[in-house]
Design goal:
Length: 414
Amino acid sequence: MKDLFDRIKDDKGPLGNWSKQAEGYFIFPKLEGNISNRMIFNGKKVITWSINDYLGLANHPEVIKADGEAAMEYGMAYPMGARMMSGHTKFHEQLEQECAEFVDKDAAYLVNFGYQGMVSAIDALVTKNDVIVYDMDTHACIIDGVRLHAGKRFVYRHNDIESFKKNLKRATKIAEQTGGGILVISEGVFGMRGEQGRLAEIIALKEKYNFRLLVDDAHGFGTLGEGGRGTGFEQGVQDGIDVYFATFAKSMAGIGAFFAGDKDVIQFLQYNMRSQMFAKSLPMAMVKGALKRLDMIRTMPELKDKLWKITNSLQKGLRDAGFDLGTTKTCITPVFLKGEIPEAMAMVHDLRENHGIFCSIVVYPVIPKGLIILRLIPTATHVQEDIDETIAAFSEIRTKLENGTYKRIGATMV
């Protein structure tokens, strides 16, 4: 019999195996300074394309004032305890009501963290007799929630409606045998490639199949649809989303998340989500701060307008320069290149040290081997100068990637 930790010593995992070469620079890098379009990395100012502060609220003076006043009044402890026991306040209720109204649902329920909340919501919504059908590119929080499911689950090819229908038929057959129901899960916006989920086509199939739809709209909330009300509004199908989820960690530049839907469904989640039943309530400073952020999204449409002005300019400039951005129809801007992990490391080092560009790098196992994504997140704080410098830098690194420079450098880095 082995010691449990023998495996950990021998195999640190797909990313952990690169820790010696990557830690502190490519993995767990330290960005310093105020959250903005330009921050400090490794002692140098860099253009920052890796912060999900879509609307530029993170260091907005009104947000800082609201956060500071709430922290001064309540501290960071109140309310103590879980919502069910001693952590419930009128401001938590107010935020839930305003979130529900904003996304046109009957009711909403706050959760402390999006990841934790999604895992727990999936666990609460299904029993062993139910069947889950989900997109293969859904976020890790959904994958982990599905893993908890004791019943059957089917995964369909990313945004492939024919694959979806095939798996929906399989799910229907099993649900008829078990007497259970079907939960379909998609994202409103897929975070790596920037595509919108094919919500309208999925919802249209409700006429033929009996299922309920859960949508993770973390990247759509605040950025898409009229007034930033999300992907369901962008596609005109918000009514067909049975359980809507959004996080405060992106457009709202905060902490927390919420689920919204029919009153009876939300009440069921309130009484059955273990991650909230047994966890401390969201602190008051974060609740009051979220109320301020939501009000700004509602009343300051210029924030979203500025975001999309920057997004459109960035994506048009990259495409005009011959870069492959896939099929993104959102602010997420993936630049697809071909290469292996050592080449990606050399390329990103060049970008950061010699061009002053900091963007996220996505490689295997998140995407297939041989593919590199440089993932750019435009925000309302970026300016045209940032875009021009970035496109010029990308043109230079593409040449080095194609002529083998990074292959040679990468070999020495590993």
